[in-house]
Amino acid sequence: MTQFLLIIRPHLLSALAALSLIGCSTISRYDQTAYANATSAKVEALTLLDKATGIYASHREDIEAVTITLKKGYEYDRGRSLNTDSIEMWESILLEKTDDPDSGTYTRFISLWKAQGKISAAAIPGKKTRLALAFDKLITLENGKIH
């Protein structure tokens, strides 16, 4: 019996150590749906920005559809545990903070479009680059998680 315990003990300790590491994870695991949500939202949002040279009122349905897509991705990630970093990245895209002019990249663009009626073609590439970078951070984070 003693020999049996000597053989089992190292394996048992290894298993317990592995379980404790899994239990102490500080970030969620990779999620295919979250990845798909982020990549789809990026494509839809950047496509919408190209339409901003047109009159805002003419694109209200497009804006609403894209905004809903982004909100769905955000809400999906909010429902996942250990997902604070992804949630913060979604918030940098969607939520405007009065003390942070770089917050709400998408939302601020939509507000600007609404206020101006349309955006000049010269301004679109810079806005698209900023929004694409925000999405790229989110997508890279999700793709880098343990699969």
Kindly describe this structure:
- With 147 residues, the chain is mostly helical.
- The protein has one domain (28-144).
- It contains six helices and no strands.
- α2 (32-50) runs antiparallel to α6 (124-144), α3 (60-78) packs antiparallel against α4 (84-94) and α4 (84-94) packs antiparallel against α6 (124-144).
- The two termini are 40 Å apart.
Distance between the termini: 40 Å
Q: Which structural class fits the helix and strand makeup?
A: mainly alpha
- Strand and helix order: HHHHHH
User: What's the tally of helices?
Assistant: 6
Are there runs of 5+ residues with pLDDT below 50, and where?
15-23
The tally of strands reads 0
* Total domain modules: 1
State which percent range the strand residues make up: under 5%
> Can you give the helix content as a percent range?
over 70%
The overall average pLDDT, rounded, is: 89
Shape descriptor:
elongated
Main sheet: strands, sense, barrel: none
Estimated radius of gyration: 22 Å
Task: Provide a compact summary of the structure.
This protein is mainly α. Helices cover 71% and strands 0% of the residues.
Give a quick set of tags describing it.
0% strand, 6 helices, elongated, mainly alpha
How is the secondary structure organized here?
Elements: H1 2-23, H2 32-50, H3 60-78, H4 84-94, H5 105-116, H6 124-144
Helix pairs in contact: 2-3, 2-6, 3-4, 4-6
